User: Fold these one by one.
Assistant:
Number 1:
Amino acid sequence: MQNQSAQPVLQLKGIHKIFPSVHALKGVDFNLYAGEIHALLGENGAGKSTLIKVMTGVYQRDGGEILLEGKPIFPNNTGDAQDLGISTVYQEVNLLPNLTVAQNIYLGREPRRLGLINWNKVNRDAQELLTGYDLDIDVTLPLSGYSIAVQQLIAIARGVDMSAKVLILDEPTASLDADEVQSLFRIMRELKARGIGIAFVTHFLDQVYAVCDRITVLRSAQLVGEFEAATLSRSELIGHMLGKELAELGEHKPQVKTENADALLDVSGITRTATLSPIDIKVGKGEVVGLAGLLGSGRTELCRLIFGVDKKLGGTVIFNGKAVNFSSPRDAIDAGIGLCPEDRKHDGILGQLSIRENMILARQIKQGWWKFISRKEQEAIANQYVKELSIATSDIEKPIEQLSGGNQQKVILARWLAANPSLLILDEPTRGIDIGAHAEIIRLIRKLCDQGLALIVASSELEELVAFSSKVIVLRDRNKVAELDGSDINPQRIMQAIAAS
Amino acid sequence: MLKLNPKFIPLAVTCCLFFLLFGIGAVQFEGFGSSRVLFNLLSDNAFLIIAAVGMTFVILSGGIDLSVGAVIALTGVVCSVLISQYQWHPLVVFPVVLIGGTAFGAIMGAIIHYYKMQPFIVTLAGMFFARGLASVISEESIPIEHEFYNQVAAFGFMLPGDAWVGTSTIICLLVLVAAIIVAHYTRFGGRVYAVGGDANSAALMGIPLAQTTIRIYAISAFLATLAGIVYSFYTFSGYSLAAVGVELDAIAAVVIGGTLLTGGYGYMFGTLMGVLIMGVVQTYISFDGTLSSWWTKIVIGLLLFCFIALQQLLVRGKPR
């Protein structure tokens, strides 16, 4: 940290952003100094991405001030922000796959001679620029031929070369492997040494401690605080991010179910070439089995295989004491299994339909369309679950898309509960929902398992898994690498299993 | 290893195909493989080349322009009315129609951008509008009678081997050279490819989408108007039902020329080759003398299928 007393290169003061349905930023401050790497942390829905979009001109703020080197700025679009010296690199690299690497770097500012683009200079300069990033690649080939990691570095090189004073990296490491992350970090440190202020958004706390000088934490659209990375312990940080409610939840020891409980689901050697190596998994009645692992580790694939969405190519599944072979989700539903998919918006909700219609779907399918559930019965079901799961809505006839993410998730849960399943598979049930609802979903999961329902819950949030799992299965690279139970279920052990190679 | 950038494959295929077809004709028929036939291909198809060049800009950006044929017809009608009925000098008429045509395209581009409408629908509306306007002005074919017009249309010189280079050929080659420079050597050209590759990313990279889209459709309409003027050099008349379906010929030429219909990949030079391939098939059939000229359409249809299949293969084969 240098020049704490000096003026920040980028200063946001009391930023407000209001969307029609939600107050996304409530007076947030953010101070970025030249020559520092500053982590911007917060759970999903905390307001990180909104804040970044306000800085980069994608959104216009509804209140507050943005000062760049002390002068107020009003970026209206990303072009404006870029001209001012604020460059952004997004997780899904926003470059153009059809153009060459060199074209991507110099797009819109190609060196010209006599009004025409000087391609020799473009290619030479690009090659030279990338050498500074330890990238020795052919800049005259299309970008699409290179890996995401390389594309990301190219995007950074472009951003910095456009005289960036401020570089915003929005989850740049999400799709990189360990080596690629290390080379990204090296570049980040070099840029920091050159006096560029870097705002770094990530979900990986290890990475925060590896490169960041300071940390700003957001929660529920508000600023929690600004901290020095060196003096903030990991558990304090998690406490700040999750807030009291969840932190307390995490301290509860999960109920340890006895191993000799009757296995409700006994899967052995289930596999699908290319997406999943053979995996065994046992779930007892009233047991919550957590599936841990990074994105792409095979969590979702396993859920889909068990539910019969994808066809398994090997292995056996015994459910309720009977060998079963699901050829479609329909078979799984009939057997008494439900799945809340990861991508709620596309695979879960039917946005235009009402809460009631969304809720009765699985039950109606299970009992067949010719046995139509009467309107009265539908309303009874809907009202019952709205009350039971405390779904915040005034009207069960409201289209589900008007609910918040957390309430939508509860409706999907209710959909399956109404079908009276004996096993529920939840794939990332808390993705993209706000912190309060988050804790409620976790309480709900516990309650359901107390009532004797068996659950398989895939999640990338370790604290969450620890909070409710009686057994955690860790997946890595589409393989099962560990099965933890009892006191082994803690974030450190899970993290180790995920990380070990 | 042969160092052929994968993005050049469709262009290479197109060029090879042209020379193959031309070679077959040259072997089979005496007089086919001559510079005369080659240059006739250019002068007969000059208006189509000009229109297809404009279409290439549009398709490169991921759009489509269905108004081209109608704009050609409207241009002819307006020119003939102004020259024959109002006695304007052609040198006054040409700038007037070119400016009008360009404005027409710019308006379509603005509607596409600001109202976030499908180019297909907007230019379809433009097509009906232009064709309808041409018919309202005159349902009859109007002859163009002007001394200057005759001179311009007759202007030209002979290259060795009876190869005639007329006004249309000169205009079309100038347009082609200018288009190659604009597409490949200016920042605007880069923006066209950028928008066609991924408009969202292009916007995040600071590309002014509105300006780019408007210019693209303005260029296409400008060239369609120019094609209309060149077309009137053949016919010496303006007729509201002329050039029906030329936009589809232009699209076919662009695709056969190796430009990806979804935008982002392709070359101006490929479009020239696309038109020439269509022309060479036509020439082959007229040399043969026994085949119906509709066979041209069948061959073009088959070629289109093949090229779209080729594009799919290339797109799928791309690493993500």
Note: Chain A has a mean pLDDT of 83.
Number 2:
Amino acid sequence: MKKVLLSVASIAMLTTTSFAQNFMTRTGKITFNATAPSSPEKIEAVNNEVANILDGKTGNIVFQVPIKSFKFERELMQEHFNENYMESDKYPRADFKGSITNLAEVPLTKDGTYNAKVTGKLTMHGVTKDVSAPGSITVKGNSVKATANFSIKLTDYNINIPAVVADKIGKEAKITLESNMAQK
Amino acid sequence: MNYTVPSYTVTNKEQKKSAVLKRVVIALSVILLIGIAAIVYLWNLPHKKVENVKGISISAAALTKEYAASEQAANAKYLNKAIEVSGIVSETDKNQDGGTMIILQTDDPMAGIQCAMRDKTISIAKGQQVVIKGFCSGSGITGVSLTGCVLK
């Protein structure tokens, strides 16, 4: 117990000491597209409520995505997404915790666009997996824009698509991320 | 080419039979129509509007405290429910699609109530006392999230 308390305290201290170099946003954007090649319907949604914090000192980066904030064009799809596939009552949030592994090549104090390698753990629908994706970081003054494109396999996260809709919902979801962080 | 049209003598029994058949056809088409109507209705189901749902009233500070005490217990109480949160606007933010997010002040400087407004035509000033109604979508490191919000 003492050890736990100590580590909690040291984490708290670390986060406060590096606070000045944090970049954050609450309005990051994630879109996903899980349309099967043969589907006449687009299976896609947008979420403009993604929280994102980047620690400029360590390169640690966190994304938190409220699942219920994904907006579909069709309410019916939105309901199925929440109730049948993501079970958002049980798993209301997707979290990514990771870091920029090539921080030396991504100077956050110098304007420019840099390639960032991001590795970490993605927890979604109760399943945690190691994920790495190439991204891009654009620094302009006090703002940092992070963008990334990657795909995730739905079965990796125990999301099973019934055979009846397998011609509409693909096996993979293409994720597009864009987050405009400001220095905090 | 000539066809001879077979002539039938319509008996009482046959008349009854065709009457039954007629009813079956009518019944089946009614079921079919209801089915089509149901599919069209579901397909065009409107998005839920928060105004049409009864909301739970709570202050921004109290909601944050409940989530800080137990995320699980608070989710059981508020997740996906309409809530009316009263508080002071500490910050506003525009998202990439032109939508507005209003942050309500709480006792925790890191965590605000994050209200994603449904309508894009919202103008609000910092420091204003407001009541915002929206669907709770849970909480995270930056505070509790409400989505599809309107000003009360």
Note: Chain A has one domain: 2-183.
Number 3:
Amino acid sequence: MAHMERPISPHLQVYRWQIQMVTSILHRATGVALSFGTLLVAAALLALAAGEADFATLRAFCANPFGQLLLLGWSWALFYHLCNGIRHLLQDIGMGFRIEQFVRSSWLSVIGSVVLTVLVWGYVLMNGVAG
Amino acid sequence: MKYARMGSEMRTPLARARGLGSAKDGASHWWVQRLTAAALVVLGLWFVCLVLSLLHADYASARAALARPWNAVLMIAFTAAMFWHAQLGLQVVIEDYVHTRWREIALLVLVKFLAVLGALACALAVLRVALGS
């Protein structure tokens, strides 16, 4: 009995992809990514406290293409986790549980995060970065 | 309180008196995760605005900006909430995906230690800038 082949619960690959699934997975993925991003915040503060040379090193790191890519990804992850986090907080107080509301708020999180990212980087590009 | 009343019919009187449930620590993990999330909505937006305002700042003016009392206080609040929230979130991910018990415990402890170290290091860095040493 114990070794009988039992049906296992369906896993990711058997589901048709839908937006609610994407937002749920992305929330966890961006959360883990942002946890590593905390190191960047800590590094910036420590560099600022340490002195001008360390601060210049940090600036140079953020200004090179790899650093810029990292910052772009970090900012999108932050905005996505922020938008979807607000969505989850609203759901926690009992709002938006009808299926169509659920789908709509999922799209709002994704679109909102992209809009915020574009706005911030648009601002950065228009104002230029100090060397 | 609505919050306390909600689950009352679902639990035995003893379970309710203990207030712990199957997680063994009650709803405190869940609640603190939401509390730090709400704080981070405000503090996160403030942080983004601060960073954007410092785009053109050289070292001295970046330091001066962080040294302003409100900015220093909010930065310590932001980094504390950030590391706390990250630790709570990573804990759930580790509990979900790491199935070897000793690895799970080791990772949970490691993440907790690193989060506390990170929060302390950030607080000290901000204080050094704010107090000018």
Note: Chain B has a mean pLDDT of 90.
